[in-house]
Amino acid sequence: MSDASGQPAMTRWQAWRRAARPRTLTATYVPLGAAGVVALQDGAFNAVLFALSLVAALLLQIAANLVNEYYDFRRGAEELKQAGQGMILKQGLLSPREVLAGAVVTVLGGIAIGLFLLTQSGPLLFWIGLGGVLVVLAYTAGPFPLAYNGLGEVAVGIFMGPLMVLGAYYVMAGQASWTPVLVGIPIGSMCAAILDANNVRDVDADRAVNKRTLAVLLGQRAARWEYALLVGGAYALLAVLVVAGVAPWPVLLVGATLPQAWTLIQVVMTSNDTALLHRAQGGTAKLHGRFGLWLVAGWLAALLVRALSS
């Protein structure tokens, strides 16, 4: 079965999957993986609490994606866009009411699991969870939407980096530690780069509807340099953590992703082609996932060597 354009018709399951924006979910997998290996290092890893933290975080990120989809459509931010994540409302694949209902269900699901985890840990989780829910709701909704006022990268970098790593670690360990916070900083930097790549691509469409992203406020040239700083900074910060003894040296296996990072930086810094920039945004999400995968693999390797030598 095909649609009016001759393309195969999308099933409702496929539409919902696209609305969830699965390729962006590395923004949850990576910080949770980092929290897991730090907790394992400290002898605090708990598989059940880890799994529940992962599900809760995924539900809240999907909720954020649905809220973003709904309010960008309502505010007309997708009218001039030629490419991007989601865009299911613009293409009529789901109705606004369905997307809003999906956002409510996923937010409530994430909150319900979070409340249970709160009973298993301590008060710090309440404040981290509350901040996360507020970011989900205020990212594109409310009287002062963060993404429309130049605060998108800041919010994403903080909550999808150090605070998410700390929160998941705290659930398992029952106490706070500086290690997950510090490890979360390069992760948050790489995550913010995904959003910056998106904003570089959409700068003209966003400016036309008064969506004041950092790319709009500072200009595309500055946003391009911001991307290079966020991506390059993630590697530099991780190297500093190794030198400082916070992270074990095998995490430098992330260096395997440097060629991909360099290619993406060149594209974002020089290209004005929307299709290329769209692929670079998707490539940055993949880079974030591979950066996290090598970080976790390197940390696990260090723990294995330590266990075998003890």
Characterization of the model:
The protein has 310 residues and is mostly helical. It has a single domain (12-295), classed as Farnesyl Diphosphate Synthase, CATH 1.10.600. Helices cover 72% and strands 0% of the residues. It is built from 13 helices and no strands. It has helices at residues 12-20, 26-41, 47-74, 96-120, 123-138, 152-159, 162-173, 178-201, 203-208, 214-218, 220-243, 258-270, 274-309. Helix 11 (220-243) packs antiparallel against helix 12 (258-270). The protein is globular, with a radius of gyration of 19 Å. Mean pLDDT is 90; it is low at 1-7.
Keywords:
single chain, 310 residues, mainly alpha, Farnesyl Diphosphate Synthase, 13 helices, globular
Number of strands: 0
Number of domains: 1
| CATH architecture grouping | Orthogonal Bundle
| Series of H and E elements | HHHHHHHHHHHHH
Q: Which outline best applies?
A: globular
Rounded mean pLDDT is: 90
Hey, roughly how much beta strand do the residues contain? Answer: under 5%
Please write the CATH class name. Mainly Alpha
| Strand-pairing-aware structural class | mainly alpha
Q: What would you report as the Rg, rounded to the nearest angstrom?
A: 19 Å
Q: State the helix count.
A: 13
Low-confidence stretches: 1-7
Roughly how much helix do the residues carry, as a percent range? over 70%
What kind of sheet is the major sheet? none
- The CATH topology name reads Farnesyl Diphosphate Synthase
End-to-end span in angstroms? Answer: 62 Å
